[in-house]
Amino acid sequence: MKNRRRLCMPLAVLLGCGVAGCATSTEDPSTEVFLATAADECDTTSQCKAMHGPSATDCLNSRSDQSVCMCGSDPCDNASPTPAPSPSADECNTTSQCKAMHGPSATDCLNSRSNQSVCMCGSDPCDNASPPPSPMPPTPAPPTPMPPAPPSNPNGCDYLIAYDADGNIYDADDIHATAMTLALIAEAGLQKCVVHFAYNTNLFGNTNQADLQHANVVSAIDRFGYNANVFFDVRGTRGAQHSAGKANFVSVMNQLGSNKRLVYILAGPMQVPYDFITAGPNNKEPFITVVSHSYWNDKFAVGSNMNTCWSRARCDCSALNNRCTASEARNTNYLEDLSVVLHHINDQNPPAFNSPVSSWQWLKQVDSDDWLFSAVATGTKKAGDASDSGMTYYVLSNGFPNGTSGTSKPSMSDVRRFFGQ
Predict the structure, then answer these.
(1) CA nearest 387: which of 334, 335, 351?
(2) Would 154 be classed as within a structural domain?
């Protein structure tokens, strides 16, 4: 080793070395230690390891202003020729700034409180480990994000969502399906796209199920962050909530057009949807696609309060071997007579959304308090049957329905993947 200076230690000064450096040695090179004396490189060994990696073994002269990181018997600057970062960089104040500039490989902002801070990527300065294409300016401001492409609708939704559910009488599967539908929409992040949601819409009457349905809906609104102002508990009558729901639906219809369409998922009888649609302007009906899956809902009618069916073909009692009640046989209104688009899919009872309770155990992993599992798979009546929500899964998985029919046969594994399980 020629033309090097010895490590300046107090003992070295006694041997005739000046403070600027020692004379060139002629001793055995293996016993020599060299460094520049003006570095004052470190205070602790851990700082040396952060700068030079695990090969750093000591911070020599740590209490003086001539400290040097040692890698074995040599100064680390000699042992690893990677150039030290420029002392004038003052590159960062926090590790997060380093990550913003250099990506996840940045591990530390070394000397963050000084004016010689440097972003470290492991044991090397990030500028050495992965040099940027151009010098980074001191403490740069984060880049301005590019604005997103303008949405097709003002609220950022590709389409708007309306939903109708009964649940206030007959089977509890309607209650399970309503909870699952609201969870599915929230999982897709489309809560703001729900512009109308009416429930307990069977005008035949009420049981205590109306309260259960209402409790689940209120809990879901709070849990998932829905707009409570677009939810209406009709409670089986054409009362105040029916009127408020109708007014809301008409206001939604007034917004519709070729670039803003509405999918109306019908998980209850046809009567209340018919009431709401016919209250709005006829010229907006073509921008509404109604979706159904259930023969029972398609034709259900009781007395003078309910006399609307999906279509004549679905409600032709003679063609259906007289599987109609006397009231259903007197249906006089049909959704097919409107200008809305009718879209019917296969019955969702056979696929995953009507499954034994044992098949829904994974729902306990979806939330911390088992709310969704309790709402879907508990109780004594039809626990595990959320079949109506199969329509919601169909729409969310396939986008706005096109045409007049569709097929959806998800497995339970498909539903689990939708929830990231």
Answers:
(1) 351
(2) no
Cα–Cα distance for residue pair 106/134, rounded to 1 Å:
18
Dihedral-angle region of residue 354 (phi above 0 means left; psi in -120 to 50 means alpha; beta otherwise): beta
User: What is the residue-wise DSSP string for 87-131?
Assistant: TT----SSHHHHHHHH-TT--EEETTTSTT-EEEETTEEHHHHS-
Query: What pLDDT was estimated at residue 68?
Result: 87
Which runs of E-coded beta strand occur in 325-388? 333-334, 341-345
Structurally, the chain folds into a number of domains equal to 3
Among 236-250, 254-268, 306-320, the range scoring the smallest mean pLDDT is 306-320
Furthest C-alpha separation in the chain: 119
- Residue whose structure tokens are 């599992």: 373
Decide if 325 is inside a domain.
yes
What proportion of the chain, given as a percentage, has pLDDT over 70? 77
- Two structure tokens written together for 129: 């480990």
> Rounded to an integer, what distance in angstroms lies between the CA atom of residue 220 and that of residue 163?
14
Please identify which residue in the block is written with the tokens 């063609």: 319
Whose CA is closest to 1, among 22, 23, 32?
32
22: pLDDT strictly greater than 90: no
Residue 20 lies in a domain: no
Structural domain that includes position 61: 33-80
pLDDT at 182 over 90: yes
What whole-number distance in Å separates Cα of residue 116 and Cα of residue 37? 18
Residue 195 is encoded by which pair of tokens? 């512009």
Two tokens, residue 41:
């490189």
384: alpha, beta or left? (left if phi > 0; alpha if psi -120 to 50): left
Task: Tell me the backbone φ, ψ of residue 71, rounded to 5 degrees.
Answer: -115, 90
- 291 phi and psi angles, rounded to 5 deg: -125, 135
Residue 12 clears pLDDT 50, i.e. is over it: no
Instruction: In whole angstroms, give the CA distance from residue 21 to residue 17.
Output: 6
Question: Do 72 and 219 belong to one domain?
Answer: no
Q: Specify burial of residue 137 (Cβ count, 10 A radius: 0-12, 13-18, 19+).
A: exposed
**CA atoms within 13 A of residue 162's CA, in its CB half-sphere:** 29
